[in-house]
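job 3f2a | input accepted
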Amino acid sequence: MPGENLSRDEARVRAELLSVDGYEVFLDLRSATAEGEEAQPRTFRSVTTIRFRRTGEGDGTFADLVAPSVNAVTLNGRELDPAEVFDGSRIALSGLQEENVLVVDAQCAYSRTGEGMHRFVDPEDGEVYLYTQYEPADARRVFADFEQPDLKAPFRFEVAAPEGWTVWSNGAVESREGGTWRFAETKPISTYITAVVAGPYHHETDLYTRTFDDGRTLEIPLGAMCRKGLARHFDADDIFLVTKQGLDFFHDHFDYPYPFGKYDQAFVPEYNLGAMENPGCVTFREEFVFRGKVTQASFERRANVILHEMAHMWFGDLVTMQWWDDLWLKESFADFMGAFSLVEATRFRNGWVTFANNRKAWAYRADQLPSTHPVTADIHDLEDAKLNFDGITYAKGASVLKQLVAYVGPEAFLEGARRYFKRHAYGNTRLDDLLSVLEETSGRDMKAWSRSWLETSGVNTLTPQLTCDAGDRITELAVVQDGDAGPGAAGSSQARPHRVAVGLYRHEGTELVRYARAEVDVTGARTVVAELAGRERPALVLVNDDDLTYCKVRFDEGSLETLRGHLGSVTDPLARAVCWSALWNLTRDALMPARDFVGLVLDFAGRESDIGVLQMVHAWARTALVHYAAPEWREEGGRRLSEGALRELRLAEPGSQHQLTWARFFASVAATDADLQLLQGLLEDTAKIDGLDVDQELRWAFLEPLASHGVADEQAIGAELARDDTASGKRHQVRCLAARPSAAVKAQAWAQVVESEALSNALVEATISGFTQASQRELLAPYAEKYFAAIERVWAERSIQIGMDVVRGLFPALQDDEATLRATDGWLGSHADAPPALRRLVLESRDDLARALRAQSCDAAASGS
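job 3f2a | predicted structure (865 res):
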């Protein structure tokens, strides 16, 4: 309904009219465990008291509430008729006084989409679990409010819960009488970071203590919780370890003690995000509780997310952006500080390698889409805001901040942060507020830097130009900057100032070793690196060595030939990660045939020491095969990848994380009868690979390709669920069922996702994942036309999260031909008035398809060379 999509202008007008003194929210959640499923949405009672003042001109505004019904509305003691003032998303308020009290008694709906108050029933034991998720604007699904980030206020929550439950919120528990939990008042915070977690969660505790130089001692109670069914897998000790290391790091560098009292971390089911920074009550997806053997990359990823959310306690919660235009003020900083603290404070010393190889890949893709935007964006409304939680806001912004640290120096950067917190604590800010403190601490012109890096879109390309004399000495080495954002991109970016390191590498025995390095400010189209003149000719010139800036790296002809033969010989893991990323960008830009990239993976991935890089390279290899390889080469390419994966699996150290990584990759590319027989043998314990522990999670990874190739039927999948009759097992089962190669199966899966609202968000995601199998292009062909006929209705009728999942996940990317491109253009041409957020999603998928077709042409041309 139109009122749900709050605009920036509406928020500005409301912020000019009023300020909020506080909220008191009562939630009666005892209905969560009531017997039976009603035909109408299951609801709970929500009673909200808002105390606010009129501070501007005017006597009318509105409060936000998305609820099935409202029982009563009272404004300043005057009862309002809900039928007259409530339209399903807004409560009209008129006759405001200087001081106002609004009381709203409503019936709010439990969610199955991960938005608002999500209700989950554990299939393992029937227990019910609740948690809230609001960003950017779903608190209004749980209580009446003024849903915008710049109307901060203190909150008091009171929750009535079923017997035997525990309840958590942002504040500490003040009292508990029977099943009613009362929580301490919070500091002034935005609505979207309030939280309630309730249910029979398994709960562990610890205590963080810090004594400061002035003798003050800070104690922070720590909590961590998960579903009871995951308790045996819950490694709370490691979670607490990283938490304490992070708190130490931020106290050391921010000079502003953690301001929100306790620090609980809840790992919750069916979560749409990685995590959410609710102060004092952070929520995470429960997949971070590892049910089986995982690699160190998984532990590193979890630690990074823990630290990312912790950084938000300062960047985002203590100081909050005024409107979603400046979402980067929290997300870019949290992404950067997560990696920074990970490397400096924990055991994961190679965090910048993962950042260079993984996070930046997300940014490079997003920045070359037609929807690319500056880091500081132009966000008109909430639908825009929802889609801007993207690779630019997170990973490009973090990359830009890493460049900023190289530009101004780490101490000037951190001192700027310290002043920013003290100056704007519990307030709201915009871009200029941050730039002003950084100008103070660095002495640099931050406005010029901002114009180059924060207020323009696109990614630059840096290429070395090398000339040598007859004695193989460098006469000139220059870095050429290209403003073109890349083939097929929406536009081009301007040349930017880059602080980069240029590394020279040579062969020393069997290794490629850096023997010279120079840092230089690249400004304009061409910059000479004078410091490297006179050096011996390098085998490899690596621009952006140490990954200081945000750019696409290209190679001179000699360097590219070196990497084709010796990529695995690059000794430094960060340099190697930068090389892998550059080679992948060449492939995406249709400058390197997909089969050549697959060949590099087959030749050198087995020598990759960094597990995170290896997993990323595996993902790129699959994308190269499925989307970028010429169709006539796919079968051969798939056979080569599966043979190579099996070879490396057998060569890997028994029981090692490399062995596990290659086992998962082999399963993902298995296609021949022999491959499938091996997977089935590993499941049935009739085949062995020394040291490979086929635990339950790996069993599901092996079962999915068997299902997608018609080897495992419904009975076999059901038998596996019987072994693992859990929430996680149910998601795997749903995915495997939808993966089967049958027209009837595909029709059923489509109907469950597109025509019905019966599935929860997690099961929608699992069904879409199973439905879209690369080996089933012909089977999926009829759904291309159905997709374009359905998406506008789905967007209008379903929640924005489910709409995004359907529009992205079911786009007919596997029908990779000009006909699909024309059909996409036809829909876009005939739906010019469709919601901008919906059009953006289709445009992005269209761009991915066009890129795939260009890459396929490049690869096809290679077959004749």
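job 3f2a | The first helix runs from residue 8 to 17.
job 3f2a | closed
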